[in-house]
Amino acid sequence: MNELWYKFKFAVQEDLEKLTEKRTPHHAADVLNETIKEAEQQTAAVGKLMDRQRLLRDEITKELAEAERMAAKRKEQLQLAEATEDDELISYAADEVHAYERRRDELQALADETTQSMLKLERRFENMKHKVKDMKVRRLKLMGEENENRANYRMDRIFNADLTPRNEFDSDKDDRTPGDIASMRQRLDKLTADEAGRTEIV
Prior knowledge:
Radius of gyration: 46 Å
Number of helices: 5
Structural class: mainly alpha
Order of helices and strands: HHHHH
């Protein structure tokens, strides 16, 4: 009967533990899981921004190459115009050379700035991904510690529990009246007297 009681008791305790776990969402592992989830979302968002930045850098490089090509072409045309001694044509060609050289210089500065920015962003992005990986390792360690603590807690409950079933003799002993106890004492005294008599005879 007592064994059934202990089984029932442990079952109820387990149910209560599960209920408590469901109602307590702020365990360390749960908080870390939420942090990792948010970090992964942020990493994905930054990854998309990095892709856009690379596309932008490629577009700048493309525009720079075009500006350099056109500046070189207009310089050749300016030389040809100067050979014709046509002032109007020379002025137009010079303006074109100036416009493409100004654009080329501006794009070159922008390309240099973008390249430096990309290098810094890529380093930070790699560090960000390492940080997320470190958090995942921390989560594994924490989960292992929690599992170990729960396992030890459950084992301690068994080791510390008094699972010795009470037999009918123990129950009868609890139900005895003072008269029964007195009777048992008299019987013990009689046994002692009998033993003493045997000792004297010997």
